[in-house]
Amino acid sequence: DEAAAQLEANMDKASLKTAFGNLMNSDKDLLSRQLESLLSRLDESVENHDLIARLAAQFPGDVGIFGVFFLQHILLQPGEAVFLPANEP
Asked: Exposed, middle or buried, 65 (CB in 10 Å: 0-12/13-18/19+)?
């Protein structure tokens, strides 16, 4: 809760790193329950609902599904590229 509040208040790189790190190291049982809850409420009003549903089908129970809420999802066409500096999500 503290990391989420810090991220919401600051929206800076350090807060993002802390919140994402906490997510990736969360209790597996808690993550499983939260993922079940998310998927039961998933509908078209949730941004990226198709991506979340696809990831949940391909990687059941994986914490990375929550990464959708931290990262920008973009679609590239053949020949396009994106540059991400080191240590940038």
From this structure: buried
Place of tokens 């679609």: 75
User: DSSP characters for the chain?
Assistant: -HHHHHHHHH--HHHHHHHHHHHHTS-HHHHHHHHHHHHHH--TTSTTHHHHHHHHHHSTT-GGGGGGGTS------TT------TT--
Q: Which residues, at least 6 apart from 3, have a Cβ–Cβ distance to it below 8 Å?
A: 15, 18, 19, 22
Per the listing, tokens 């800076």 go with 12
pLDDT digits (tens, 9 = 90+) for 54-85: 999 999 999 999 998 888 888 899 999 999 88
Rg for the chain, CA atoms, rounded = 14
Show the tokens assigned to 69: 């809420």
d(Cα 47, Cα 22) in Å, to the nearest integer? 22
Q: What pTM did the predictor assign? A: 0.76
* Structure tokens that stand for 26 in this block: 């969360």
